């Protein structure tokens, strides 16, 4: 038998039933129970070993009160420890009533079990901690002997179940008649692209935003002054029905240079050719890319092409587009003589150039029907101004830089252009104004800021993939522009979070092109 290292004072322990088990080489072999009574002796002793053999000795011992007897003699909590060693006798020791240690030659054994009975008159609760190789697992169980407690717990569980059911099946407000139902296009009807595009609004996510954008642009194009009541300050001309029916919304179209590098350039050219928009704003890249494409093509590449490799080949990458550096050499050869002529006219005619006048001149000189600048220049037919406040930011700026050394003196005045640009918005009345912006940055802000001068635009559609969470103007939703007075509070607006090369041609197909406005 195991030797006890210190004497144990006799505790008062009520009748308990405890399980003890052993783990040998990672497997539980046997489990037996021991009942202990007030006499402090084992009524049933168990032996555990590998495969049922008596190779191990089990030793069980009651450990004393968790409370001081002088404090509460009627309340006694006991703790039972059971330890098994496969070879030799088990030795036991304990330090405090709350913790017990099983030692074999002062080393932690393979298996240790500590069971704490928490006795109450309603039942007995057990907690078991098993430590194997430094890893502890815990299990607990409660046995009630009182029928009243069982009924109380049953009622508590019923109330909890009712609360869970109420939370899971919360009554909802009816949306019938308030919102459109989500449903996609039924291809059983055949491939009908107009119907497919019309179905976008009910598809959900950005398809719905695209559908909303189509609706906003159609409202923009359908608006006539005749739709409005005649104001007290209306001129005599504005009171004439025929005149009022001819007054349409003024459309500002802004786009970034990458879209001109892409095939969206041809969509823009279509709109300008047929005078479907009234004012264009783009970057320097948007100007030069339109002109360069008249001199040499842009090619499809791949987003993953290595930059160093492309540089060694003289190829410039724009996303998955490739522009040979020779294209810019051709551009230089074409534009420098034009700058020379503009400088001469400046001197001879005391002419002051502006970015928009320079752009119109380039549209005239390119004389290519694939160019939207060419169609914007056609003053008699279209008279569409093209503004570029960042005229020096790009290859166009490079050409101005080199020309300033070769033949210095050319002046481009941006002040005249800001007056002209803001005037397009300020003097739009009695027309409404609509904004369509592809991408973000300079074109987006320049158009919105001009419309602030008239207390905001009446329609706005933004198409880009930029996010608003870094505070960038590119990613800002239309509602942010409302706070600045750049878009009116009652304006019809939508932002489509989508690559404009996908969304814009589809939008044009269902709006401008379908209406065939000339």
UniProtKB/TrEMBL annotation:
Listed cofactors: NAD(+)
GO molecular function: deoxyhypusine synthase activity
Matching SUPFAM superfamilies: DHS-like NAD/FAD-binding domain
GO cellular component: cytoplasm
Chain positions covered by the region annotation Disordered: 1-72
Keyword terms of this UniProt record: NAD, Transferase
UniProt cross-references to Pfam families, sorted A to Z: DS
Biased composition (Basic and acidic residues): 12-56
Superkingdom, natural source: Eukaryota
NAD keyword on record: yes
Keyword Transmembrane belongs to the record: no
Protein family according to the UniProt entry: Belongs to the deoxyhypusine synthase family.
Name used for this protein in its record: Deoxyhypusine synthase
Species annotation: Cannabis sativa (Hemp)
């Amino acid at each position: 038998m195991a030797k006890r290292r210190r004497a144990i004072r006799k505790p008062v322990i009520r009748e308990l039933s405890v399980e003890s088990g052993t783990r040998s080489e990672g497997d539980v072999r046997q489990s037996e129970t021991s009942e202990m009574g007030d006499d402090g002796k084992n009524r049933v002793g168990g032996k555990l070993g590998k495969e049922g053999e008596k190779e191990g000795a089990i030793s069980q011992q009651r450990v004393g009160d968790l409370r001081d007897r002088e404090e509460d003699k009627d309340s006694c909590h006991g703790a039972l420890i059971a330890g098994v060693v496969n070879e030799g006798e088990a030795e036991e020791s304990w330090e405090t009533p709350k913790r017990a240690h099983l030692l074999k030659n002062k080393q932690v054994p393979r298996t240790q079990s500590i069971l704490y009975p928490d006795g109450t008159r309603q039942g007995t609760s057990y907690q078991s901690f098993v430590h194997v190789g430094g890893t502890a697992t815990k299990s607990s169980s409660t046995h009630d002997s009182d029928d009243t407690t069982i009924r109380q717990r049953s009622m508590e569980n019923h109330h909890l179940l009712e609360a869970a059911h109420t939370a899971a099946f919360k009554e909802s407000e009816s949306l019938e008649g308030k919102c459109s139902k989500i449903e996609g296009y039924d291809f059983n009807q055949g491939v009908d692209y107009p119907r497919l595009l019309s179905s976008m609004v009910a598809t959900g996510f950005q398809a719905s935003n695209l559908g909303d954008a189509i609706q906003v642009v159609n409202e923009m194009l359908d608006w006539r002054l005749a739709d409005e009541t005649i104001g007290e300050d209306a001129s005599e001309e504005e009171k004439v029905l025929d005149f009022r029916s001819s007054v349409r919304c003024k459309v500002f179209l802004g786009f970034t240079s990458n879209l001109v590098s892409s095939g969206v350039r041809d969509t823009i050219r279509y709109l300008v050719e047929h005078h479907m928009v009234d004012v264009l704003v783009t970057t320097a890249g948007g100007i030069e890319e339109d002109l360069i494409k008249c001199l040499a093509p842009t090619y499809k590449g791949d987003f993953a092409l290595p930059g160093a490799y492309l540089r060694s080949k003289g190829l410039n990458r724009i996303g998955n587009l490739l522009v040979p550096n020779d294209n810019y050499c051709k551009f230089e050869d074409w534009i420098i003589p034009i700058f020379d002529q503009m400088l001469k006219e400046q001197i001879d005619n005391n002419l002051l150039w502006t970015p928009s006048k320079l752009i119109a001149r380039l549209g005239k000189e390119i004389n290519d029907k694939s160019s939207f600048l060419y169609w914007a220049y056609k003053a008699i037919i279209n008279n569409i101004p093209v503004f570029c406040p960042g005229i020096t930011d790009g290859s166009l700026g490079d050409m101005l830089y080199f020309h300033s050394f070769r033949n210095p003196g050319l002046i481009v005045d941006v002040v005249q252009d800001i007056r002209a640009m803001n005037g397009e918005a300020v003097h739009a009345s009695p027309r409404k104004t609509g904004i369509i912006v592809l991408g973000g940055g300079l074109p987006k802000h320049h158009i919105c800021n001009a419309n602030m001068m008239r207390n905001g635009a009446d329609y706005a559609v933004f198409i880009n993939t930029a996010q608003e969470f870094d505070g960038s103007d590119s990613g800002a939703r239309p509602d942010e522009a409302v706070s600045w007075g750049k878009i009116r509070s009652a304006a019809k607006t939508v932002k489509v979070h989508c690559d404009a090369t996908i969304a814009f041609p589809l939008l044009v197909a269902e709006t401008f092109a379908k209406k065939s406005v000339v």
